[in-house]
């Protein structure tokens, strides 16, 4: 298995919050997982949730961030999910699940992101989504992920997808469609329109 | 092999009078049950073999005769071809071809491995499968993932010519086999999830030169219809039949892909196939009927001109591609001899049409769980004749963007996907591998970027509620009555093509990896064997040196491998319902193997 770190594409449409400096990191993450192993199948039962007790900040877009600046999910005591994580659920199941399987569980074709995000950092996640990734070798199941750097349906929702998968990886969110959620803010809609180049 | 072919030509000349037919060789190979010359078994797509050494009485004694590893770990769809004493085996990407010597324990005579840019891999929605090779006149046709069509010398593996059918950078790829007809080879294309406007193309078998191309969507000159002569349920389609059913320029990225199976009737000289979903999956972004996506097409093999069309799912709201095989049979119906076309659609309806006129005769649900439409309107005097009667609460268009429409049956993978059914003239029944899966579907707005996914909906899928809990059935179907005769519950979707034989046995594979044999009359299980990986390939049979063999490719993958690897959740069962039972990964793993069975000596 080989990993190649490529130069990253200039997309110009990254969310304002994307810390571009992080993207120059080469991807050195192994994605050897192919079929999720049976022990992950009972994900909802077995994950030991590691509650995020650090102080989070919420901005006017409705996004929660950790002290180090990474975006994060927020689930209120009554189960209400933040907008970004809910949005990430929707975008993941439109753009990512055709390869990575339902609920980040992986498939015969691509790794389980609910596992990958246990170790991938926010910066590494961004780098791979923007630039893509290749694992090509003789006698293996070749894995190639496309570069999404120019795909607005992905890039405009990078943080959303990240926090959704992070919630899955931390075991905080199960294999379900989120029911209770915060509302989409006006600022979020404006940001979304700007990202797509649509009149606000 | 040369001798066999020469003999075949002589017989062909004596028995048939097709005018100037360039591939009598293939016609004759198809008629010889010892060989398997075309993926679909025959031009009619019956997947029926006259071989009967293996029969309902002795199939229980079946044993593995020999095996072959393809060296590729991906979803293995399709099956091998057997021409004379040689077996031709294909693989998923990188699309290797092996010619195996049946006289020498499957020794490799030659191997062909194309060089393809691996960047095509992620552009292939739902795994890098390939549904197999085609043969005519000493030539093996390989249609690669990157849409390069290659003609190989069947004897040596040397490349005769190649032609490029599409551009993967725009999301144009291939998973399908091709169909040689006379001096042409009929070729489809994929990319419905990437906003490709898809087409069917005929290339000259000798040179690879393009002869005709018919798009599914667009101006009359592109889609090769005659506004006066091409009919839709008996009526002329009229001018601009496709363009009028779209708003603005959306048709230019409208999908209607052609990645399924093709059949051919030498009597009518028509090629039959279905077109896929309109792009995007968000119906609100493409008002109108979106013709001619989701359509059964009958095109003249020589000119490509459409004789008739029938759109099964106007304005698709669920991704019910219409690409599944069209099975051509001559049967008695209501006391009359009819030339029929039978089609099991993703949308859950089994259709029976008159294949000469395109007249609709039967449209009934082949899974009782199907709920998105109450029925297809069969009242000939009704203005909605032939249209499905959509149930508002399952209509993702009527529920609207950003609304999660729940409990739709079937799921987007359909009551049946491409996995082909079989027909036995002995029983008059069709044997159909099916899915038993439902979904929630939430469409939303997406923007189009060339070569990038263009989906626009969030889906979650689960086993059909209030049923046996499994995700599939294997059924026997009466196409003249539109009725299920028997149904075998399966824990997973049945994603393997069936084979019916004169030995009164029907074979199919399962996602756990079993090859199963059942009684063609009763469905009673007679034999099963667990192969090394899940089966999404199609069962093949042939005879060599007086012995009948059954061959199957194992190698889990495809959309089934993606959707079911980790198991599906049942939202009605609450959290924690997903257990080892539901996850395919608890049963099998990636693989790539051919297993060949025979009775003991």
Automatic annotation (TrEMBL), chain A:
Range of residues in the leader sequence: 1-41
Locate the compositionally biased regions of type Basic and acidic residues: 53-62, 173-186
- Report the protein name in the record: Methanol metabolism-related c-type cytochrome
| NCBIfam families referenced in this protein's UniProt entry, alphabetically | 4cys_cytochr
Any Pfam family hit: Cytochrome_CBB3
Q: Which parts of the sequence are annotated with region: Disordered?
A: 40-63, 173-200
SUPFAM superfamilies from the UniProt entry: Cytochrome c
Provide the alphabetized UniProt keywords: Heme, Iron, Metal-binding, Signal
According to the entry, every stretch annotated as the Cytochrome c domain falls at 83-169
| Family matches, as InterPro entries | C-typ_cyt_methanol_metab-rel, Cyt_c-like_dom, Cyt_c-like_dom_sf
From TrEMBL, chain B:
| Assigned keywords, A-Z | Metal-binding, Oxidoreductase, PQQ, Signal
Record flagged with keyword Translocase: no
Positions in coiled-coil regions: none
Q: Which CDD domains match?
A: PQQ_MDH
What does this protein need as cofactor?
pyrroloquinoline quinone
Tell me which PROSITE patterns the record gives.
BACTERIAL_PQQ_2
This chain's protein is named Alcohol dehydrogenase (Cytochrome c)
Higher taxonomy: Bacteria, Pseudomonadati, Pseudomonadota, Alphaproteobacteria, Hyphomicrobiales
């Amino acid at each position: 298995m080989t990993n190649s770190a490529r130069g990253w594409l200039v997309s110009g449409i990254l969310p304002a919050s994307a810390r571009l400096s992080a993207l120059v990191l080469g991807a050195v993450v192994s994605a050897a997982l192919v079929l999720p192993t049976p022990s992950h199948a009972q994900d909802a039962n077995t994950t030991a949730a590691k509650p995020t007790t650090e102080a989070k900040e919420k901005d006017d877009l409705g996004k929660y961030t950790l002290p180090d600046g990474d975006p994060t999910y927020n689930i209120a005591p009554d189960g209400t999910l933040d907008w970004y994580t809910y949005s990430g659920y929707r975008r993941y199941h439109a753009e990512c699940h055709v390869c990575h399987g339902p609920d980040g569980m992986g498939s015969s074709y691509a790794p389980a992101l609910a596992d990958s995000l246990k170790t991938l950092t926010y910066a590494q996640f961004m780098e791979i989504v923007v630039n893509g990734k290749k694992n090509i070798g003789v006698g293996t199941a070749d894995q190639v992920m496309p570069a999404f750097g120019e795909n607005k349906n992905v890039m405009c929702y990078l943080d959303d997808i990240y926090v959704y998968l992070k919630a899955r990886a931390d075991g905080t969110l199960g294999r379900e469609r989120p029911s209770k959620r915060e509302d989409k803010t006006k600022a979020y809609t404006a940001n979304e329109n700007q990202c797509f180049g649509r009149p606000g | 092999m040369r001798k066999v072919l020469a003999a075949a030509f002589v017989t062909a000349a004596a028995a048939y009078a097709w005018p100037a037919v360039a591939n009598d060789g293939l016609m004759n190979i198809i008629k010889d049950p010892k060989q398997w010359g075309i993926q679909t078994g025959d031009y009619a797509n019956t997947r029926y073999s006259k071989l009967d050494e293996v029969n309902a009485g002795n199939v229980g004694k079946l044993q593995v005769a020999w095996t072959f590893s393809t060296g590729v770990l991906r979803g293995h769809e399709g099956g091998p071809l057997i021409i004379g004493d040689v077996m031709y085996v294909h693989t998923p990407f990188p699309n290797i071809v092996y010619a195996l010597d049946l006289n020498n324990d499957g020794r490799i005579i030659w191997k062909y491995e194309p060089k393809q840019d691996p960047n095509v891999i992620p552009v292939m929605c739902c795994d890098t499968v390939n549904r197999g090779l085609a043969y005519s006149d000493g030539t093996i046709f390989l249609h690669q993932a990157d849409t390069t069509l290659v003609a190989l010398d069947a004897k040596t593996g040397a490349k005769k010519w190649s032609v490029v059918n599409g551009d993967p950078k725009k999301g144009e790829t291939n998973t399908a086999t091709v169909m040689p007809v006379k001096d042409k080879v009929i070729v489809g294309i994929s990319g419905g999830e990437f906003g490709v406007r898809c087409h069917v193309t005929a290339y000259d078998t000798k040179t690879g030169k393009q002869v005709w191309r018919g798009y599914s969507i667009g101006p009359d000159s592109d889609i090769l219809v005659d506004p006066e002569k091409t009919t839709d349920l008996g009526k002329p389609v009229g001018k601009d039949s496709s363009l009028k059913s779209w708003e603005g320029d959306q048709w230019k990225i409208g999908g209607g892909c052609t990645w399924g199976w093709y059949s051919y009737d030498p009597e009518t000289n028509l090629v039959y196939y279905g077109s896929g979903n309109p792009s995007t999956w968000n119906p609100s972004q493409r008002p109108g009927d979106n013709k001619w996506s989701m359509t059964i097409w009958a095109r003249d093999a020589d000119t490509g001109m459409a004789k008739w069309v029938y759109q099964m799912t106007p304005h698709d709201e669920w991704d019910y591609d219409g690409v599944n095989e069209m099975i051509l049979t001559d049967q008695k119906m209501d006391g009359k001899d009819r030339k029929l076309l039978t089609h099991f659609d993703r949308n859950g309806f089994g259709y029976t049409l008159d294949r000469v006129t395109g007249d609709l005769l039967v449209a009934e649900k082949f899974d009782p769980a199907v709920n998105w439409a109450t029925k297809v309107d069969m009242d000939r005097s009704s203005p909605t004749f032939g249209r499905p009667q959509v149930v508002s609460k399952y209509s993702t268009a009527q529920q609207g963007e950003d609304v999660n429409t729940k409990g739709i049956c079937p799921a987007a993978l359909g009551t049946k996907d491409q996995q082909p059914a079989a027909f036995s003239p002995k029983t008059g029944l069709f044997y159909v591998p099916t899915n038993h899966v439902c979904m929630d579907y939430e469409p939303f707005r997406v923007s189009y970027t060339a070569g990038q996914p263009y989906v626009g909906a969030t889906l979650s899928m689960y086993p059909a509620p209030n049923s046996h809990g499994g995700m599939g059935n294997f059924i026997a179907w009466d196409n003249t009555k539109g009725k299920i005769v028997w149904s075998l519950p399966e824990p997973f979707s049945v994603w393997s093509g069936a084979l019916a034989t004169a030995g009164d046995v029907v074979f199919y594979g399962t996602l756990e990896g079993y090859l199963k044999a059942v009684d063609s009359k009763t469905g009673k299980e007679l034999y099963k064997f667990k192969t090394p990986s899940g089966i999404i390939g199609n069962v093949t049979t042939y005879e060599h040196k007086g012995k009948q063999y059954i061959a199957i490719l194992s190698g889990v993958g495809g959309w089934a491998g993606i959707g079911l690897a980790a198991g599906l959740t049942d939202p009605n069962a609450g959290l924690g319902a997903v257990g080892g039972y539901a996850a395919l990964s608890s049963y099998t793993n990636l693989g790539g193997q051919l297993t060949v069975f025979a009775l003991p000596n």
